[in-house]
Amino acid sequence: MTLVTGATAQDEIKIAARIERLPYSPWHVRMRIILGVATFFDAFDALAIAYIVPQLLGEWHFSPAQIGPLFSIGFAGQAVGALLFGWLGERYGRVRMTMLTVLIFAIMSLMCAHAQNYEQLFWYRFFQGIGLGGEVPLAAAYINEIAKAKGRGRFFLFYEAVFPAGLLVVALLASWIVPTYGWRWMFYIGSVPAFIVIAMRMWCPESPRWLASRGRQAEAEASMAKIEAAVSANGTRPLPPVPDLPVPPAKAHIGISELFKGIYLKRTIVVSLLWICAYMVTYGLMVWLPTIYRTVYNLSVQESINYALLQQVMSMISFLVAAMIIDWTGRKRMFAFCFIAGSLPLFALWYLQGGTADSVRIAAALSMLFVSICSGALYLYVPELYPTRMRALGTAWSTFWLRVASIFGPLVVGWILPIGGTAGVFLFVGCISLVGGIICTLFAEETSGKVLEEISP
Fold first, then answer.
1. Integer distance in angstroms from the first to the last C-alpha of the chain?
2. What is the predicted pLDDT for the residue at 2?
3. 448 closest CA partner among 334, 367, 336
4. Helices (H) and strands (E) in the chain — how many of each?
5. What whole-number distance in Å separates Cα of residue 125 and Cα of residue 75?
6. How many CA within 13 A on the CB side of residue 31?
């Protein structure tokens, strides 16, 4: 346990105040682009397998019972990566550990491209998942820590929009590449982020908030000065005065156990449940739909991929709209509305006993229009709920449950489908989405417009 002295708490709030005075600038855009490219390929690599499996079924002739585990093993790796790199990110820094995670998932994507059988692809996907699972919470913590309170929701969600963009692009590319050039090229493309590490090394300063929280004040000052110089164009653009922020009481670094004490216990439980609900629906649908179109509705590989594309388009549009209004609506109201609204088209499909391929395409797209907002915007909300001393750890712990949901979502759909058919699948994911809306309505806290240190002392 490391005690944070009053002087260090004061140093932290000084850094926070200097961040609060900075206008959003081209420097902030550059940080969003660099981290965003890494997150874009995180989404790309995570979902590529959904569009590859319909072709692999014909090429490798593995059984339908092996589909669910192939989907889920990548998420198992992501669960391990989230916890491991959440801890490492608190210990060794946001930027350095993010670079390591990017290298891991880029290299393992290349290994997946050279897999010769089901077993090899299975284990390569696990190790690829470790990098994927570690990158997202670290990047989310970093982007939150360089943002000021005013407009933070919009600022963050325009960064996080690269995640649904990655899901959309993987669907677009898969519809062309998989039937034309084969599934291996999807993994070759997924290895591109290895080059992003160079940009991160050159242009991404370590989070001043994190440095100050670790008592490394000289480095925090140097990093902050570098950011101020970039935002002010080396002093040619005057910066606003530094605001006065109240100094929080001294706290101790007590590790992961603090997530389950005081005000953070309720927050940890609530956001963990929200992650579970969002991603049981998101990956339960997105991962399985191309295969459902192929095996249940007897569409071709090309048609199956094209049908799944619409929901990605709808997700991207809705996410951009959410970025514009989330600071106005607040986090809590938007999440509650989107979870509940996302459940309604799924209940309609259950009532129609699964419907036709066309009705599934339309209803699934409408559902994902809403639920994808929750699955993306939670990356904004969760880091806001934890202080700098455990922001990456808190985000990693809650996203661990995201990964658990991502493992069991496809598995449960695989179990339900032979028994209850598509109607049973849509009833299951519809109920999960509705539960998310109820939890958010009753227990979530509002964070919009507040300084991070005010939300999480």
1. 18
2. 47
3. 334
4. 18, 2
5. 9
6. 24
What per-residue confidence (pLDDT) applies to 179? 82
Angle between helices 67-92 and 26-60 (to 10 degrees): 150
Q: How many CB atoms within 10 Å of residue 62?
A: 17
User: Is there a contact between 206 and 145 (Cβ–Cβ < 8 Å)?
Assistant: no
Q: Are 3 and 389 in contact (CB under 8 A)?
A: no
Regarding predicted confidence, which is higher, 16 or 9?
A: 16
Is the distance from CB of 53 to CB of 70 less than 8 angstroms?
yes
Q: How far apart are CA 206 and CA 15, in angstroms?
A: 13
Q: Which of 288, 341, 311 is nearest to 164 (CA)?
A: 311
Model confidence pLDDT, tens digit, residues 136-192: 889 989 999 999 988 999 998 888 877 777 777 777 787 788 888 888 998 898 888
Residue 454 is inside which H or E element, if any? helix 452-455
Model-level pTM? Answer: 0.83
CA 297 to the chain's CA centroid: 31
Cα distances (Å, whole numbers) of residue 167 to 22, 47, 198, 227, 341: 32, 7, 24, 31, 21
- Between the alpha carbon of residue 91 and those of residues 83, 168, 209, 311, the distances in Å are 13, 34, 13, 39
- CA 133 to CA 379: how far, in whole Å? 13
Which residue is listed with tokens 């399985």? 288
The torsion angles phi and psi of 3, rounded to 5 degrees, stand at -75, 130
pLDDT digits (tens, 9 = 90+) for 341-382: 999 999 998 988 877 777 887 888 888 889 888 888 898 999
Do the strands 2-3 and 252-253 form a parallel or antiparallel pair, or are they unpaired? antiparallel
